[in-house]
Amino acid sequence: MSVQTKSLYERANAVMPPVALRATTLGVIKGEGSFLWGEDGKKYLDFASGVAVTNVGHNHPLVVERAKEQMEKLIHGGHNVVYYPVYVELAEKLNELNGGNCKVYFSNSGAEVNEGAIKLAKKVTKRSGIISFKRSFHGRTLATTTLTASNSAYRKDYEGLLPSVYYAEFPYPLRSGLCDLAETERCLAQLDEIFRFLIAPDQIAAIIMEPIQGEGGYIVPPEGFLKAIRRICDMHGILLVFDEIQTGFGRTGKMFAWQHFGVQPDVLTLAKGIANGFPLSAMVAKAEWMDQWTAGTHGGTYGGNPVACAASLAVIELLEGGLLDNADRMGAYFVEQLELLKDDYPQIKEIRGLGLMIGMEFMDADGKPVSETVIGLKEKALEKGLILLICGSDKNVIRFIPPTTVKKEEIDQAMNIIREALSELY
Ligand SMILES: Cc1ncc(COP(=O)(O)O)c(C=O)c1O
Fold it and tell me: Which residue owns the Cα nearest ligand 1 atom 16?
């Protein structure tokens, strides 16, 4: 068989390891807005957005234009060597969006920027302890594999990771069966236990958390939880790090999810949607901490690439120019439509989320997570032209992550496919 007759999946399998687990075997050749074109000649409605990356739609014309313009001028200057306009402009904009008292450091990926956040926290507090949350996902480098606690498979055979990391539970009322308040108190009590039995709070450099857990199941905490964590951090001089790598850049209908909760972190980490697909990440941290991060104690060659920074400025312009509102409106419409499914399919236990970060959790009559239906739904939807992803530590949550440009007709098209797929599964 000649190379040309093989699919991209088959060719990739011959030369690439299985380690990068993929949600589909689909090969694609082009993207535009909410759609991807497969090498099979089919057009797919993409409600995965490259895992919450193409937040303003595939190849948005403004992003393409600004990236092209920048490529004509400068592709790499090296932020360890020189300064260039888009790099400084983006830092100024991110600072402004976060209240104006911050400083910004650029890296390339989510994991890299979370590593940086932990290094900053350790450096400026001179403490070693870190608290993370069960079901969290923070990346797959060695340090971020340690912080990640959504699945033991990520850690298997890599143990002996970063020391002094402790884990608390993130509120999940659907699972505990408790009301928001009681669930918040239960989870906060775990922090007290950590402080009492394992490590004193004055030894903790940072608490790192996703304000809405992503990989863990699109879990939105009760509002009071984040406020309480903020208070604990203030009381003990602990840096609060919000990993908004998935929740940031319009995903939840606001630029950042912290704005929904009125709780600002000391350190905000951003990646994914920041540049609509160009590799870029950023740490936005309070100036009082950043000013203590001594020169040369952290770095990286490619951070703040000019083309990625230009793309990011375009993303922000688009989000502020109406797409945040669209995400909010379309998110509400989508949830409304999904809620209607509950009457016919009692296994659908909860539809939750903010903006266009929406999870649909499946459980059986005994309250046990059901993953087969979810896997079946994802596969059937793909056959019918809709790309969906799964999340949750039990793989029983469908996550809907369309771009903020999504139209009502596209949501209707997705709903028709979902209904059809569910009717074939039940
Ligand atoms: C919340 C969160 N943090 C960190 C990461 C890691 O980002 P990256 O894959 O760019 O290293 C992800 C990726 O899925 C994520 O969702």
Answer: 246
Do 67 and 205 fall within a single domain? yes
Q: From atom 7 of ligand 1, which residue's Cα is the shortest distance away?
A: 110
To test the ligand 1 pocket, which listed residue (137, 249, 276) has its Cβ within 8 A of the most ligand atoms?
A: 137
Angstrom CA distances, 150 to 89, 260, 396, 401, stand at 36, 24, 13, 19
> What distance in Å separates the CA atoms of residue 349 and residue 363, rounded to the nearest whole number?
6
Q: Which residues line ligand 1 (CB under 6 A)?
A: 51, 109-111, 114, 137-139, 210, 214-215, 243, 245-246, 271
- State the residue range of the domain holding 381: 3-60+327-425
Domain end, chosen from 318, 337, 354, is at 318
Q: What is the pLDDT of residues 276-326, one digit of tens each?
A: 999 999 999 999 999 999 999 999 999 999 999 999 999 999 999 999 999
Residue 160 Cα to ligand 1 midpoint, Å, equals 22
CATH number, residue 377: 3.90.1150.10
Q: 């000013």: which residue's tokens?
A: 291
Distance CA 122, CA 321 (A): 38
